[in-house]
């Protein structure tokens, strides 16, 4: 039986593909409606979240880059971290715990490929507006903070190499190494806060939506909390529909967690980045993705190492290799000080490469 997730309940439906059957047709219509409705709700909630988190950072005297890389990234990382936590801590079977491991590996892959790719596409489509604002000719190149972004990619790569290596070996004290990943994220947060910067464009904040004027920290916190609540609920609905689609396609649970679920759970980060690009705050958009990647490299990994054997099969290892390759490519692109929006958009093709491996690897005789 196929089950569609709705309001926390699993509704059984026939698994046989039968477009003409009323039950199947109703299932597809309901899934599509919930899929699109939750995606729209996430975007609208992200508008409120981005707006409030900028005011929160201003009231806390934090630099704009720290707002994107720490506050916004941590807030929107809660849904995918919850997926990993629930699976590895409360999962009763090895298959259930594998879902958490798949989510911990799939998150960085989606951020490095699809999230940066979507940002590149948004920058490409927004190039005319950026050029008019700068009174310059239309260009595909975007000036970036090469030092900060390059450093973040190298830091992520170092942590990620350790993370993947631990998935290939087994020893008795491996679970204790999860503490090192938490310490690495704490060090990253400290560095971001102490070295944060704010440009002239990033000083210009839109009025707080629920309290225009000169809002206090309390009002900014309230709006951020309410927005996160909507994001969490809508993300839960969205993930449920994606997983139902994966089950309908006959995908194994941990493969669905590796390929489909991260796309759903990383949607808030992608929405935040699109909103900031639209506002002309490219540094915040890129910092948000970079910060979210550091969270995904550390906190879900620590949970997986604490509560599972943390051993990788073929698909998990390939996801790690594709993610590592993508980070190297991004580091080469970012270290130049400018990035071509078309090249950044093309990075999403690497996710398509991994998806092709998952879907057709066995047919082609790949491990």
Task: Put the structure in a nutshell.
The protein is mainly alpha-helical and 367 residues long. 72% of the residues lie in helices and 4% in strands. It has helices at residues 22-59, 64-76, 78-90, 94-125, 127-133, 146-166, 178-194, 200-203, 217-248, 253-259, 261-265, 267-278, 282-307, 314-334, 341-346, 349-360; strands at 2-6, 9-13, 141-143, 338-340.
As a percent range, the share of strand residues is under 5%
Q: What is the molecular shape?
A: globular
Through-space gap between termini:
29 Å
Low-confidence stretches: 1-17
Q: Total number of helical segments? A: 16
Secondary-structure-based class equals mainly alpha
Oligomer: single chain
Overview of the molecule:
With 367 residues, this protein is mostly helical. The protein is 72% helix and 4% strand. A hairpin with a 2-residue loop joins strand 1 (2-6) and strand 2. The two termini are 29 Å apart.
Describe the secondary-structure layout.
Elements lengths: L1 E5 L2 E5 L8 H38 L4 H13 L1 H13 L3 H32 L1 H7 L7 E3 L2 H21 L11 H17 L5 H4 L13 H32 L4 H7 L1 H5 L1 H12 L3 H26 L6 H21 L3 E3 H6 L2 H12 L7
Antiparallel strand pairs: 1-2, 3-4
Give descriptors for this structure.
disordered N terminus, mainly alpha, 367 residues, two-stranded antiparallel sheet
């Amino acid at each position: 039986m196929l089950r569609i997730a709705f309001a926390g309940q699993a509704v059984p439906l026939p698994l046989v593909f039968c477009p003409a059957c009323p039950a199947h047709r109703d299932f597809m219509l309901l899934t599509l409606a919930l899929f699109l409705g939750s995606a729209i709700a996430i975007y609208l909630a992200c508008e409120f979240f981005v707006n409030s988190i900028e005011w929160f950072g201003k009231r806390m005297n934090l630099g704009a880059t720290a707002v994107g890389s720490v506050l916004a990234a941590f807030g929107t990382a809660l849904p995918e971290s919850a997926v990993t936590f629930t699976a590895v801590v409360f999962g009763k079977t090895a298959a259930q715990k594998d879902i958490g491991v798949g989510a911990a590996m799939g998150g960085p892959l989606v951020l490095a490929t699809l999230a940066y790719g979507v940002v590149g596409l948004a920058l490409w489509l927004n190039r005319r507006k950026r050029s008019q604002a700068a009174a310059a000719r239309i260009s595909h190149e975007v000036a970036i903070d090469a030092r900060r972004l390059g450093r973040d990619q190298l830091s992520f790569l170092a942590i990620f190499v350790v993370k993947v290596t631990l998935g290939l070996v087994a020893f008795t004290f491996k679970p204790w190494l999860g503490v090192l990943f938490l310490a690495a994220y704490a060090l990253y947060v400290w560095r971001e806060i102490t070295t944060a910067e704010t440009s002239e464009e990033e000083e210009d904040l839109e009025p707080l939506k629920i309290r225009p004027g000169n809002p206090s920290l309390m009002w900014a916190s309230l709006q951020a909390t309410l927005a996160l609540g909507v994001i969490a609920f809508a993300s839960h609905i969205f993930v449920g529909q994606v997983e139902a689609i994966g089950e309908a396609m006959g995908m194994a649970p941990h493969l669905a967690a590796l390929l489909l679920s991260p796309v759903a759970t990383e949607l808030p980060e992608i929405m935040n980045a699109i909103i900031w690009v639209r506002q002309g705050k490219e540094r915040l958009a890129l910092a948000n993705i970079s910060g979210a990647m550091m969270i995904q490299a550390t906190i879900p990994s620590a949970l997986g190492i604490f509560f599972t054997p943390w051993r990788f099969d073929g698909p998990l290892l390939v996801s790690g290799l594709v993610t590592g390759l993508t980070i190297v490519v991004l580091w080469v692109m970012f270290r130049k000080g400018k990035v071509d929006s078309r090249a950044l958009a093309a990075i999403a093709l690497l996710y398509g490469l991994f998806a092709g491996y998952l879907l057709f690897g066995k047919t082609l005789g790949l491990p």
